[in-house]
Amino acid sequence: MKFRVERDVLAEAVTWIARSLPTRPPVPVLAGVRIEADPDGLRLASFDYEVSARSEIPADVSEPGSVLVSGRLLAEISRALPAKPVDVSLEGTKVTVTCGASRFTLLTMPVEDYPQLPAMPALTGTVDGDELTKAVAQVTVAASRDDTLPLLTGVRVEIEGERVTLLATDRYRLALRELTWKPAFPDTSQVALVRARTLSDAAKSLGASGSVNVGLATGQGVDLIGFEAGGRHTTSLLVDGDYPAVRRLFPDESPIHAVVNTQLLADAAKRVALVAERNTPIRLTFTEGQVVLDAGQGDDAQASEALEATLVGDDIAVAFNPQFLLDGLGALTTSFVRLSFTHPNKPVEFTGQESLEGEDLKEYRYLLVPIRFAS
Predict the structure, then answer these.
(1) 3-class DSSP state of 373
(2) What is the pLDDT of residues 11-65, one digit of tens each?
(3) How far apart (Å, rounded) are the C-alpha atoms in residues 218 and 238?
(4) Of 66, 67, 71, nearest to 32 (Cα)?
(5) Which of 125, 170, 251, 271 is the most buried (most CB within 10 A)?
(6) For the chain, how far is it from start to end, CA to CA, in angstroms?
(7) Do 212 and 126 meet the contact criterion of CB atoms below 8 Å apart?
(8) β-strand partners of 257
(9) The whole model's pTM is what?
């Protein structure tokens, strides 16, 4: 095997492929990146039995072949090389990487021991890359990071024709985002539970490619989701299990609501949170015309700040985990946020508004459970 490839092209592809390699692979070959060279270019791949990644890049191939080398080491080397063409050749059991005056020799692993990669599922639909990236970022903030609850580390994806709904919760907050896409078949109706980390990685890395093709295979032995854009493919096994019926947690009616400038509220919350000890909440007190944020009590450091706000309904006070509050505000892309209340101790719904007096936009909804505080 022998080929020449542009340094930036190689570095970008290997870095993307290697991002999902396991830190402690159950077998050594799973730490490798497989490179296949033929007259059409290079195909790079990684697989850990759950997530696979493939990338196709142009290269001048003089001798076809395939090889398996340490993915993380190759990624580090390719990023460190000078901005010149890279020559790669296989000599026995070693791969030589030459770029300008730099020369590296890597040991190979037995490519015949590498597992067969799963096939990309048939096309289910196509979604705008920027819209997917934005939607996934808004929802995954609410997904659990606790691996002892694998169901809650996933994002529930509900597909009904042209409408896709993403849902995530960690029991303390719930995020819902709706978006439209182009289904392969108009009557498509499917539900899948996708790992939040995998979904986030796919959206970030493929979203800039314009449109993203999504394939979903369920009920066929192996439940799999796949994403493809710009010569890159990634697949992931779906999370197994029944997701809790969280959609019903959104209130049908909210007798009280307040509207505040999103950025001003986020900035004030960050400042007030400086005196909040670990797991200590920020208290928000809403009265006509303003909201007062405060944290700290007794002999501890204290902070308070007042902001302009509109209030419809009775005065109300709630307390939130500061980071959960900031996550919700940061996920909104509108100038104003509407907080809808049913009771001081019931979950509060966050939605966006483009103007102070405008209608709230329901395409993104963030539900946050308040923390009880002493009166």
Answers:
(1) coil
(2) 999 999 998 898 888 999 999 999 999 999 999 999 999 999 999 999 999 999 9
(3) 9
(4) 71
(5) 125
(6) 73
(7) yes
(8) 312, 340
(9) 0.90
Asked if 307 and 264 count as a contact pair (C-beta separation under 8 A), the reply is yes
Give the strand pairing for 348-353 and 336-341.
antiparallel
- Tally of CB atoms within 10 A around 335: 15
Cα–Cα separations (whole angstroms), residue 92 to 1, 20, 89, 105, 280: 10, 28, 10, 12, 61
Listed residue (81, 93, 82, 3) closest to 44, CA to CA = 3
Q: Is the Cβ–Cβ distance between 96 and 104 less than 8 Å?
A: yes
Which contacts of 183-186 are long-range, i.e. CB under 8 A and separated by 24 or more positions?
A: 183/124, 183/125, 183/159, 184/122, 184/123, 184/124, 184/125, 184/126, 186/161, 186/162
Nearest CA among 356, 357, 371 for reference residue 325: 371
Could you give the strand order of the β-sheet that contains 163-169, starting from the edge strand earlier in sequence?
Answer: 189-195, 154-160, 163-169, 173-180, 361-368, 348-353, 336-341, 256-261, 310-312
Residue 374 — very low, low, confident or very high, per pLDDT cuts 50/70/90?
low
pLDDT in tens, 233-275: 999 999 998 999 999 999 989 999 999 999 999 999 999 999 9
What are the structure tokens assigned to 279, written together?
Answer: 């797991």
